[in-house]
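The protein record quoted for completeness.
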Amino acid sequence: MSIHKTTVATTNTSNPLSLFSRFHVQSVSGLIGGALIIFWLVMAVIGPMVAPYGANDFVSYDVFGPMSKDYLMGTDYLGRDIFSRVLNGTPYTIGVALAATVAACTAGVVSGLVAAASAGWVDAVISRAQDALISIPSKMFALIMVASFGSSVPLLIIMAAIAYMPGSFRIARALAVNVMTLDYVQVARLRGESMAYIIFKEVLPNMFRPVLTDFGLRFVFIVLLLSSMSFLGLGVQPPDADWGSLVRENISGLGAGAPAVIAPAVAIASLTIGVNLLIDSIGNKSAHH
């Protein structure tokens, strides 16, 4: 009877689609965070198309000009429309960070599941390799990579993914090891289910919320890492620009309170705050469950 109850109890949670269908945000902060994320994701797709000017169009002789009806966020140090520059930089900031986050979390979760399922020497080898990577500070690793291979979008994605993969691995492995000791996994093993079945049907669905929360955190970390690299001139290179590059280019206007330096900084802050609000909402709901 107890085995039957355990099996029934886990049937509803072992379906990723049913988990996702029950995922919703109830708190006001979560709704605000979700709205900010959706807004910037939409801008990453249509931003360059709706920008009033080209990213590199010189539209005014008034450098560091104020906000106006013609230039909603003022002009930059060369007289370019900063609103258009921010919109055109959105795909680079969000697209590169999102690609790197997907790569980091996918590699981290897969290696964590393999380590947890294999145990023994396989677990030890993978864990030691990940420990070696995580011992290197992310910014130092990024500087070494850029100094060795130059700066390009593919390299930035690979660099950020490698830098933040070990953290995702640790979380995934810890979750998988914990789930694999639970009764319903032992029941599945007694039924003779394959390891692939156990991982995809029993273990992975029950890691969904923590992994999703970790994905959001990794995304924020990578956005800030890439923005800091661009601020140092080692990120996205001209004529393209992301938000970190816009802050660096216009930093001389900070003393005068030019919107050209404030606008991209606000964009970075709003994106990271939005993601944090949403993942906090998810974390609070997980705690209640």
